[in-house]
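Reviewer 2 asked us to include a model.

Predict the structure of this chain.
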Amino acid sequence: MGKTGREKNTKNKAKHSKLMAKKKNKKKAGETLRKERLKAIILKAKEEKDN
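Predicted model (structure tokens):
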């Protein structure tokens, strides 16, 4: 017999998808922040080298 009432597993799947998206966005934000910091360090080093 099939299950009656709510569909099985939809609540957990939605929650899992939300958490995984949050994790992916956090990682991407961290990578972009790191790249920006590296660019700033490189620019500063070039300026000091020129002076």
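The two ends are 80 Å apart (CA to CA). The chain has a mean pLDDT of 89. We have added this to the supplementary material.
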